[in-house]
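Sequence only, no structure available. Ideas?
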Amino acid sequence: MSNARSSAIEKALAALDALSAQPQAVGLPDLAVRLELPRQTVHRLLGQLERAGLVVRDPSRERYSVGPRLAKLSFATLRSLNQAAPIRAILQSLVEEIGETCNIGVLDGLDYVYVQRIECDWPLRLHMEIGGRLGAHTVSGGKVLLANLDAKLGRRLLRSRKLAPATSHTIVRIGRLEAELASIRKLGFALNDQENMDGIVGAAVPIVDPKGNVLAAVGVQGPLPRLTLEACRAFVPRMRQVAERIARVWFD
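Reply:
I predicted one. Tokens follow.
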């Protein structure tokens, strides 16, 4: 590979790193300063990345953010075979210890997307496929991730579409949900009190990268009365240990 080609790839990766590190869209002048490159060079580079679907441009403000193709690549990476085995082994140990179904999920807009999931051995359990989506406001993992978004981004996201109720317990009023998310940020975990499905409760904790960014969540769920909210709270310390182990596999 030529030095010029290598340099182009490095510049592209640096641009994607800079964009993904920001909680909101970034303007061309700011990005050029961050990359220490001429604006013309950055503009040309962003155009190439935009055509590849890796970034998107807001034409009204000339600001750039992460594109759908990069998000898909991120999900694929989290599910990739070279990491699936150790991650699933860690998650399996948690399932065996607490006896309930556990999952790992990420946020995609207002959806909570399962990237790993291991079912428990009980005949009565909730079946969901890897790649399955649920309203983030209806499940503990989704609420953990919403709670840890940048404040401005979180407010815009919650108001980007009407929050649909999954059950009579689902929190759909923005003010009440924001209060719930503030409490989750303080506690460091979230509970699901039948908010996605009647009779199903759960809990989740964040998976944090070395820079302190919350990128995913570890969750547990099960049916009442076999699993209670009190039991979910009791699982939190162990779930945090598992989240730390997963983070080491992903980022070390």
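DSSP finds nine helices and nine strands in the chain.
Hope that gets you unstuck.
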